[in-house]
Amino acid sequence: MGANEELDDLLTSTIQEMIGDQIMIRTVDGEERVYNVVSSQINHSIAGKKNIGICLGKEVSPDEVVAGSVVYYYSSNQLISSATWERIKKVSEGPLLLMG
After folding, report:
1. This prediction's pTM
2. Alpha-carbon gap, residue 74 to 87, rounded angstroms
3. Distances 78 to 81, 88, 95 between C-alpha atoms, Å
4. Which of 7, 56, 11 is nearest to 34 (CA)?
5. Alpha helix (H) ranges present in 1-100?
6. What's the burial of 29, exposed, middle or buried (CB within 10 Å: 0-12/13-18/19+)?
7. pLDDT tens digits, 25-84
8. Per-domain residue ranges for the chain?
9. CB contact at 8 A, 59 and 22
10. Residues 78/34, Cβ–Cβ less than 8 Å
11. How many CB atoms lie within 10 A of CB 1?
């Protein structure tokens, strides 16, 4: 589970585009791994929060994503011709589900 209140005001389609085809997970010990996204699902809670589920496929064990890890999406900024990994959520702060 994870949280990023900045996502709560975004359209579902915008979040889906942000997630894209790959995410990177940085663990608490600094290890970074890039995963292909099989699918993602975004629901709305009765509290007005976004619940985000990201399916990474069967080759990824849930044990690989420990509490305190941070999930990033790949962002390409055409104005300055750069691309960076931007934070989506920090695992264990709220509604983000990573499924294997």
Report:
1. 0.70
2. 9
3. 5, 20, 30
4. 56
5. 12-19
6. exposed
7. 888 888 888 888 899 888 888 888 888 888 888 878 877 777 778 888 876 544 443 445
8. 2-99
9. no
10. no
11. 15
